[in-house]
Amino acid sequence: MHQYRFLLLFLLAAVIMLPARAQQGGIENLRETGKAFASVARQVSPSVVYIQVESKQEAAGMGPFASPFTDEFFKRFFGEPFPGAPQGEAPQRRAVSQGSGFVFSSKDGLLSDRTYILTNYHVVEGAEKIKVKFQDGREFIAKVKGSDPKSDVAVIEIKAGGLPALRWGDSSTLEVGEWVLAMGNPFGLSHTLTVGVVSAKGRTSLGISDYEDFIQTDAAINPGNSGGPLVNLDGEVVGVNTAILSRSGGYMGAGFAIPSGLARSIAEQLIDSGEVVRGFLGVVIQDLTSELAESFDIEQSRGALIAQVTADSPAQKAGLKAGDVIVSYQGKPVKDIGSFRNRVSQTPPDSRAKLTVIRDGERRDIDVTIGRLDDAQLTAEAPAEITSELGLSVQTLTPQLAQQFDAKAGQGVVVTKVEPGSVAEVAGIKIGDVILQVNRKPVDSAKAFNREIGDSRQGKRALLLIATGDMQRYVVLSW
Question: Catalytic: 191?
Fold first, then answer.
């Protein structure tokens, strides 16, 4: 009997001690996590710099005769100055801005010490004087080595050697939920560390830069963090903090960083040649929505729909056509136009690339020799608008109308009227747009257009190929 009592007391004591031990274990885990963050901070901080930029800006409304009528604020409400109001050229004023950056390469050599610092293009844009300050208080005057506005990446250099450089990490191996740390100078508060997780990967079409493939994180990023590193728990750079999504101008839980794979490639090109070379295909593309997929008799709704092929481009030479849906590039699926565009741009010019397209319901493999992108050849993305009612009038393109709308007579019909609130208006169709095809059949007259639309009445759905200036796009109208 005494043995059972002893066993019962022992079990009761063990049960009482379990929560205390669990609590103690939880606290120890938190301590270890905190020590890991502190270790990363000590490792990263010496390589992070505070960047101060001086530039010249016009002082609006402050001409030789200061007048309220020349102030931009007043112009917004009252328009241009009244006739006879005193005017003059606006003087220049000094503007000071700040951001962040980090050392990613440092070279030592006799009379040739150089340290390269990565930051954002928008941090140093228009800079006349750049000053960088390290955590230990050392300051240097820097100059821009190279910049790439399309990706918002810039490299600046200082005449100094032996400075600690951060290691590059592999952004492609990041997983959603993984710990990341952001280091920078928000609001001028030097070397501020924030901690969060990877919220998402491959964010595109945000309108932040031409080439987007952002890492989204909830690590606090604020004005002044731009250009600072996003690092993993090993202290390796996996991203360059670039932008925030905010209604207040401050942190609201969604920050964006350029992945290290893209940033490193651009930075190395800027050091080696001072410019970035990108691949060029020569197509106007739009996302394949479910409505467009149905119109093209395609089961899947992922891919890049070719709305236009540039004349004499690699795409045209390879035989790509408007209406082709690109579903694979270099053996990897095409999920959306943003990621596809990035992959093409990172393909070396003159190299061969394999595309898989769906044309008329059949899959085809097409080999193309990638060209080199020039500023005049920027690949455009056609907007894809889906609507719910019909309402527009068209007119046959006469030679006079073709000249007026910069179109070709006999190729398409011009939109002459768009009903307010109609499917056409909601789809973004405007007076002057030229409709080239209805349900993938060319229309060369108003009669042909009406005939094709008539054939669509039973299904209450039509696929239009529309040209606005030099840009073409597909639109599905449902009514």
Answer: no
Cα separation, 463 vs 32, whole angstroms:
59
Choose, from 152, 213, 324, 433, the residue flagged as catalytic: 152
- Long-range CB contacts (< 8 A, 24+ apart) of 411-420? 411/436, 411/442, 411/444, 412/436, 412/437, 412/442, 412/443, 412/444, 412/467, 413/443, 413/444, 413/445, 413/446, 413/448, 413/449, 417/392, 417/393, 418/391, 418/392, 419/391, 419/392
Q: Could you give the CA distance from residue 82 to residue 149 in angstroms, rounded to a whole number?
A: 38
pTM above 0.90, yes or no: no
Q: Are residues 333 and 314 in the same domain?
A: yes
CA atoms within 13 A on the CB side of 258: 31
Q: Which entry of 100, 171, 199, 226 is annotated as an active-site residue?
A: 226
Q: Which two tokens stand for residue 419?
A: 């009903």
Domain of residue 208: give its range: 43-80+92-276
Q: Among this protein's residues, is 205 annotated catalytic? A: no
Q: Is residue 32 part of a domain?
A: no
**Confidence tier at 22 by pLDDT (50, 70, 90):** low
Q: Are residues 151 and 184 in the same domain?
A: yes
- Nearest-angstrom CA–CA distance, 252 and 223: 12
Percent of the chain with pLDDT over 70: 81
CA angle 356, 362, 368 (to 5 degrees): 30
193 neighbors 184 (Cβ within 8 angstroms): no
For 41-87, write each residue's pLDDT tens digit: 999 999 999 999 998 765 443 333 333 333 333 333 333 444 444 45
- Which one from 100, 106, 122, 260 is the annotated catalytic residue? 122
Domain count for the chain:
3
DSSP 8-state secondary structure symbol assigned to residue 168: B
Are residue 264 and residue 129 in the same domain, yes or no? yes
| Distance in angstroms (rounded) separating the CA atoms of residues 232 and 31 | 18
pLDDT of 251 over the 60 cut: yes
